[in-house]
Every structure is written in C-alpha cells, then in structure tokens.
Amino acid sequence: MNKFINFRYAIIIAGVFFLLAFILSAVNFGKTLEDQPEKIGFIILGDITKPGWNESHYRGIKAACENFGIELMVRDNVKENSGQCPVAIRELAENGAKMIFLASYSYSLEARDIVEEYPKIAFATNSAEIHSRNMTAYFVRMYQARYLSGALAGMKTKSNVIGYVAAMPNSEVIRGIDAFALGVQRVNPDAKVVVMWTGKWQDEETEAAHAERLIKEAGADVLTYHQDEDSTARTADKFGVDFIAYNEVLKGYSEHYLASVVCNWESYYVDIIQRYLKGEINSVKNHWLGIDRGAVGLSNYSSAVTPDMITKLDYLKQELTNHYQIFSGPLYNIDGEIFCEEGDAISDDKLLEDMNQLVRGVEILE
To answer: What is the pLDDT of residues 192-204, one digit of tens each?
Structure first.
C-alpha cells in the first residue's frame, strides 16, 4: 500500500514538474518572440558615408532606431528609375522588415505597384505625389529654412544676383526655390534669383559647371543649391563667393560659407517611428513637421554674417514659429500671372503635391 501511495506521489510530483517545465517553456518561447526587435528597412539614393542628404538621413534614422531598440536594414546607392528600388524592397521584406522608408523622391513611382503586394508592411516615402493605403509621405517643411536662407542671401548680395543650382523642377524643388526667392524679396526687393537645372540629385561635374556659370555669366555673388552633395559649395568657395549649403553642416570651408539649411532628421525619424509603433503611421497621407517643432532651421552662422543680420533672421524665424504663411497672396509667377490671390494662401496639399509655379523674381539660365 505504501509503495502504491509513494508511486502515486511520484507520478503527481513528476506531473507537476512536467507542467512547470511546460509553462516555463511556453513563457520563454513567448518572451523570445516578444523580445525579437522590430526591423525597419531604409532605401536611399547615394552613399550613406558621404556628407549631405544621404549621410544626414542615415545618421538620423540610425539614431532613432537605436532609441527604440529596432534593427535597421540599409540599402544605399539604389539608383532611381533603374529597377533597383523594387529589388531592394523585396529583399528587405523577405528579411522581415515591417516598415520601409523610401528616402528619395522618385522611389514612390517605382514602388507604387509593389507596395500593394505587401499590405502588412508600412511604407513611408519622401514624395507626396504618390500615396497608397499602406504608403504615406514623410518630409519636413524645409521651405521654411529656405525662406530664412533667402533672407540671408538677400542681405549679403551686393550684385543683387543670387545663383541657385537645382536638381529638377518637381514640387519639392520648386517649393524650396519659391520660398528662398520670397525670403530674398522680403529683405531686398531689387535682388533676383537665377536658377540652373542639373536634371539629377547627384552630378558633381554638372553642379560645379553650373555654379561657375552662375558666378561668371550671371554675376551671382551668393550661391545656394538643392542637390544631395556639396559641389556647388566647393565651387563657390574656390571663387571666393558667399554660399549657403544644404542638408549638412560642412567643415573645412572659409568664412564665405554663411550657413546651412538643415533638418533635425533624428528628431523627425523618432516622431514617425513612434507613430508607426502606435499603429498611426498610415492614419494621414502626409507627415510634415516644421520649424515650430525644431525640425528645420539654419545652422550656426559664419563670421561674415553681421549681428544686425542675425537679429533680422531671428525675427523672421519667430514669425515662422508663430505660423506665418510664406505662401500667401498675392503671388505672381515668372510670367507675371497671379496664381495666389490676395487674402489667400496655398494649401499644404498643393505645396506638397502640385507646386509647379516659380514666383516672380526667379529667372532660369539655360
């Protein structure tokens, strides 16, 4: 009898241990799954080690992912309109990416069909012209910093000619040129902005040649640019001409380097990844942060920027922080036709998706 009781106890004890082992196993299995980090994919046009658009974005998203304990998978040097973007998307999806950033303007056109094949992946694109149920646009109000940089250029120019090397006439670039020109006109109505198109986001040789032509042919004594890298800056410094950089705080330049138009990409990526983790990423079609959130601005000024100029720029910055409308009427295009009536303002959707008018005071050098 005692042997039977002992046997029963042994079975019960063994069962308890088995049950505990099973529970612990299940808990550990669940914990393992839960602890697996989210994976985010990031596709960008150029080399993430090169200063400018590519490196600044990479630094920002890398820091943001580290902040949330998310694994970042990068595909750089992915050329636009080459078929490489869809290939990169498939690779990232197969490697477990639950969100994919498309950090160059034309990627959304190439990805328009493929995003529908991955309805459970959240896509975010720099271009606001293409949307999908699971693809939203993300960008900053860089035009606000462009406006400030235009005011700086307008105060610095002596020839009243300011050169602008620009990639292509899409909504993003035109929006920046117009804001810059309106900033120039705010402080110096006599100055004009002369634009040359390169047709590419990155083309060092063409950018340098255009910058030189703007100096020698157009008479520009201040230059700026909308390109991924700093060839225009190097050319301006070489000729002793003032310039305002874009995307990056540059090093090794003279006092002719007045300032940079910059974005706090880390802060921005933290914001948008947080929205993704909350399941809010696709709740709106455009995520657009501005100067009031510290997302954009000008870098520190060189010694060539006077205290009076800085005071004026601080005043204009405060206006923007208080939601001053840069694109309010009356606004005329380069042909003298009104495209925004007095009392009206251009809507965010129009600015983002269909900004196709260059303002009066801008000229194109062929």
So the answer is: 999 999 999 999 9
